[in-house]
Amino acid sequence: MIQFDRFVLENGLKVLVHEDKSTPMAVVNVIYDVGAKDEDPAKTGFAHLFEHLMFGGSVHIPVYDEPLQLAGGENNAFTTNDLTNYYCQLPAENIESAFWLESDRMLSLAFSKKSLEVQRKVVSEEFKEHYINKPYGDVWHKLRELVYTSHPYRWMTIGKDLKHIEDVTLDDVKAFFYKHYNPANAILVVAGNVELQQIKDLSEKWFGNIPSGEKYNRNLPMEPTQTAPRFLEVKADVPLDALYKCWHICPRTDDRYYTTDLISDILSGGGSSRLFQSLVKEQQLFSNIECFHMGSTDAGIIVIEGKLVKGVDIKQAEAAVNVELKKLQEEGISVAELEKVKNKTESAMAFEDMSVMNRASSIAMYELLGDADLMNTELDKYRAVTAESIVELSRIIFDENNCSTMYYLSTN
Amino acid sequence: MNIRKQAPPIVDAVNFKLHLKPYEHFTLNNGVPVYTVDAGAQEVMQIEMVFYAGNWYEQRQGIAAAANFMLKAGTTTKTAFQINESFEYYGAHLSRTCYNETAVIALHTLTKHLDVLLPVIHEILTSAEFPESELDIYKQNSKQRLIVNLKKPEFVASRLIDSYVYGEQHPYGKYTHEADIDALQIEELKTFYSKYYQHGQCAIFVSGKLPANLQTALNQFFGDLPLSKPSMLNSIIPIMPVEQKKYRIVNDENAVQGAIRLAQNFPNRHHPDFKKVIVLNNLFGGFFGSRLMSNIREEKGYTYGIHSYLQSHLQESSWMVSTEAGIDVCEATIAEVYKEMELLRTEPVDDEELLLVQNYMMGSILGDLDGPFHIMAKWKNMILNNLPEDYFYQSVQAIKETNATEMMEMANKYLQPDAFYELVVY
After folding, report:
1. What pLDDT, in 10s, does the model give residues B50-95?
2. Between chains, do B81 and A288 touch, taking CB under 8 Å as contact?
3. Taking the CB of residue B17, how many other CB atoms lie within 10 A of it?
């Protein structure tokens, strides 16, 4: 059970406080309700580039990092398709430094030309390092475009095209800031060796006079129901053939999410999971195979991906995957198998909650989903999943007409 | 007045008194030492069994790693699937990792399930089988993983740089070829297992929320095994650094980036300069605010990230600079690294920057004492490196006491371009 208090400033900023007196540290975590899905299709990769610019100086502070490091702190940030999260950890004595820094960049950025020029290059190198100069690096570009016809999950957070990053102007940066970066679109979580009243005072002092800004009302194109199988074949300079299969699933806040999550654990995620045991160990068709879902806020996908053993025909490998899915749909699962994946979930949650930084970011994520208290009721929801619901949902998800398949074949 | 124009007052972390929670210690009947840290709010724990079974001890390349991996490949009464299920049913995880001197089996579990899991680890340590069929799968999948990795410039660069610094015959410098994997034989794995696991040297590190019966339980399952306590006297294997210092290697004709590695040999943690150089390393390339990061990423945008670090080996270390940079700026990146070395050699660091590094390092250590696993990691590191009990406090003292003269002295001693190997893999 993670305890927290919640209050809202007049400008709409939600603040959540989690006290933990066992640590000498404090964590300040700010989520902005903006991700790659909020981008203009002609300017993708922008939310992530913008995250870099948030460190390039704010209206009163030339650089973000140095004062924080001087206060004994460290920080980082990440952007997903759904959100942008900034977090820092520092000795609790110095927590006011974090309030000063975070509130100033929520108030306004310095909009430095130099910072834009440099970060544009840095992000280009990040793009190259992770998505170009790497075998299988472009897989997700291709898959997302195959799977999503309308929803902006069609592109990755890094962007569709390096050119989009290269073309960004300072005016784009300003417009994006004023649209998304304001108290009405943010959640502040403070955790660690702090007191509720102290955080109330500090929040009022540093964030209280930031203009509320307009609440951004998201109106994204919905992904229509897929009605026929999709298929893409790619040939690339990679050593091994790889198979990718994706199916649409429910949104994160849907009750079926928990069942979906357990389905992915039954199929993969351990040496005793179904796909690994059958396809890697017994039939030796794949050298590795995984099933996972993206955990995305809007309706996302569940994925099976695997690299084939050299010499195996990909059609045969795919047929064997389908047999495993059919088994799940027709023969169901045992009591013990269900218990196993529930136990795994319980254990994973306990390990995750060890660090105060993780607790802070979980509180922020769940609050963004609607209510931080979801965090404390999730285990019960997993516990309530039945074997029947798993079978039933696996029949709905693993339907041929809901599936996109990609053969990523080696030219060697 | 506008309160935002001035930073709020801070307490300099360099003045903090840091406290590392001490470990508890007991010995099993067979002499195996057990170190424990009982802390944390979550009902979780980890047991790390450290065996002296790293690649230091293998007769041929790949044996130690294969033996370590195949500990979960089956026992006289259980298949690999059943072993995995024994842990996974309880949401637990048994990992195994092979390093140079040591190889580790680590259990992560909810504390309440410990009693049902210890017998399975006991079984693995007494009656692991190495089935031919499992070895075949291991060979096939390891080779496949290797050929994919060989397409990644950073993987190739990291292997090569170690082979230059330590020599390709040294455990720190050697690397696996496909032929090594093909040559693996069941019998040599069994022999290795018998000598270095069943009858090996072992130390156990337990941390988390610990059960009251821990000592009894560990003694029951491991106290009678023919294990012994580590001698802590590893044989020294002399390194054989290569002559040639500069390399440019084309791994992929279509590369858009190069993987850059610069490295020089460096003594281990027992050397009196080690603690001082840790501070200098932070200033140089050890964190986001370092000189290398500020110049090469934040000023020039040549790379997504650049880091320097001291490798954490027992016998000896190397000082490494590592980055991936655009193909047209690789040489410029290297020139800038040398320029930063020169600045550190010739100009004293100003007080403000040094204080920032000191505060950052102290804050970072303080944050790193969060939770039993992190506390244990610090103790384990000291114990396995055979360092004195107060080494943690010595290191903290070295951060507090450093000064610009010392930094310059260290830079002149160690940051000399001629001493560095230089590699770019395109």
Report:
1. 999 999 999 999 999 999 999 999 999 999 999 999 999 999 999 9
2. no
3. 6
Distance from CA of A45 to the nearest CA of B (A): 15
Q: What is the pLDDT of residue A130?
A: 87
To 10 degrees, what angle do helices A374-383 and A256-267 make? 60
- Tell whether the model's pLDDT for residue A334 goes beyond 90: yes
**CA distances in angstroms from B276 to A369, B13, B110, B341, B407, listed in the order given:** 47, 18, 40, 16, 8
Instruction: Name the residue facing A22 among B41, B81, B301 (closest C-beta).
Output: B41
Residue (of B410, B406, B387, B383) closest to B270 by Cα position: B387
Q: What is the pLDDT of residues B193-218, one digit of tens each?
A: 999 999 999 999 999 999 999 999 99
Put simply, the answer to whether B370 touches A356 (Cβ < 8 Å) is yes
CA B323, CA B307: separation in Å to the nearest integer?
7
The reply to whether B152 touches chain A by the CB within 8 Å rule is yes
Interstrand relation of B257-266 and B421-425 (parallel, antiparallel or unpaired): antiparallel
Give tens-digit pLDDT for A378-403. 999 999 999 999 999 999 999 999 99
Chain A residues with CB inside 8 Å of B283's CB? none
Is the pLDDT at B286 greater than 80, yes or no?
yes
Tokens of A343: 């136990």
Tokens of A272: 């005793």
Residues of B in contact with A287 (CB under 8 A): 140-141, 144-145
Q: DSSP secondary-structure letter at A131? A: I
Q: What is the pLDDT of residue B234?
A: 66
- Mutation to test the B interface, candidates A1, A27, A70, A307, most B Cβ within 10 Å: A70
| Cross-chain CB nearest to B297 (options A24, A122, A129) | A122
Q: Does A67 touch chain B (CB under 8 A)?
A: yes
In total, chain A counts a number of residues equal to: 412
Which residue of chain B is at minimal alpha-carbon distance from A64? B289
This prediction's pTM: 0.94
What phi and psi, each to the nearest 5 degrees, are found at residue B64?
A: -60, -45
Query: Is any Cβ of chain A less than 8 angstroms from the Cβ of B366?
Result: yes
- Is B240 touching A (CB cutoff 8 A)? no
Please compute, for residue B96, the number of CA atoms within 13 A of its CA located in the half-sphere on the CB side: 20
From B281's Cα to the closest Cα of chain A, the distance in A is 16
Residues 91-120 of A with CB under 8 A from B: 91, 93-94, 96-97, 99-100, 103-104, 107, 117-120
8 Å CB contact of B144 and A239:
yes
The ipTM (two decimal places) reads: 0.92
Residue type, B382: M
Q: What is the spatial distance between Cα A70 and Cα B356, in angstroms, rounded to a whole number?
A: 4
What are A51's two structure tokens? 């995250």
Sheet holding B44-51, edge to edge: B24-27, B33-38, B202-208, B44-51, B103-110, B93-98
Amino acid at B11: V
Identify how many contiguous H helices and E strands chain A contains and give both numbers.
Answer: 15, 11
Alpha helix stretches (DSSP H) within B244-390: 274-281, 291-292, 330-346, 351-367, 372-384
Angle formed at CA A61 by CA A58 and CA A67, multiple of 5 degrees: 120
* pLDDT given at position A30: 98
B10 part of contact set with chain A, CB < 8 Å: yes
